[in-house]
Each structure stands twice: as structure tokens, then as C-alpha cells.
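Need C-alpha cells for this chain, all 136 residues.
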Amino acid sequence: MQFAALALFAAGTGAQIKAQQNAGKAAQIEYKQRAQQEVDAGRDREIDRRRRLMSALSSQNAEAGALGIDTSGSRTALALTDARMASRDSLTDRAMTNRRATMLISAGREARNQANLQSGATLLDSVSTGYQAFGK
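Here are the C-alpha cells for all 136 residues:
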């Protein structure tokens, strides 16, 4: 009878440890997916930014052409300023996107490590409880 109780206790402990490890793996996968979504969103922002820049530059050129204005000089300087600003915005967004993605991946690793630590603590607690209950 005592052997059956010990076997059930060990099986329950094993199942609890496995569940904690699986939860850690699932959290890591979720964080990794969120990081990929962040990278994808950054790519979409970059595409949108470039479209808006091209649209603005095209509008400026079309307006200048319709008015018969030479597109060199101040209009060209304005276009270059717009392009530089867009480039700075792009670099900043890319850096922030990569930082957020890296932080999410790190959080996923940390979640998995925490789950592994919890499963180790569960094992030690179960051994202690088992010894107290069955070791005497």
C-alpha cells in the first residue's frame, strides 16, 4: 500500500514538473512570436514611411511642374531635408524595433529559466515532503 502511494506521489510530482517546464517553453515561444510581430510591424512602418515620402516628393514635383517652377534650388533642398528626416526616422525606428524584439526574446528566455527553477524547487519540495511522509 505504501509503495502505491509513493508511486502516485512520484507520478504527481513528475507531472507537475513537466507542466511547469511546458509552461516555460510555451511562454518562450509566445515571446519569440511577439518579437517577430514587432519586427514585422517595424517593416510595415518602414514601407509606409517610404510610401509617404515618395508621395510627398511626387506631390512637390508635380506642383512645381504645374506652376512651371524650376525644381532645382530651394525645392531640391526641401526634398533632401525631407529625405534626411525620413532616413533618421527610419534608423530610429529600426533601432527601437530591434531593441524591443531583443527584450522580448530575453523575456522569453527568462520565463523559461524561471519555469525550470520552479520545477527544480517543486522537485526538492516533493522529495522533502515524500521523505517526511514515507521515509519514516
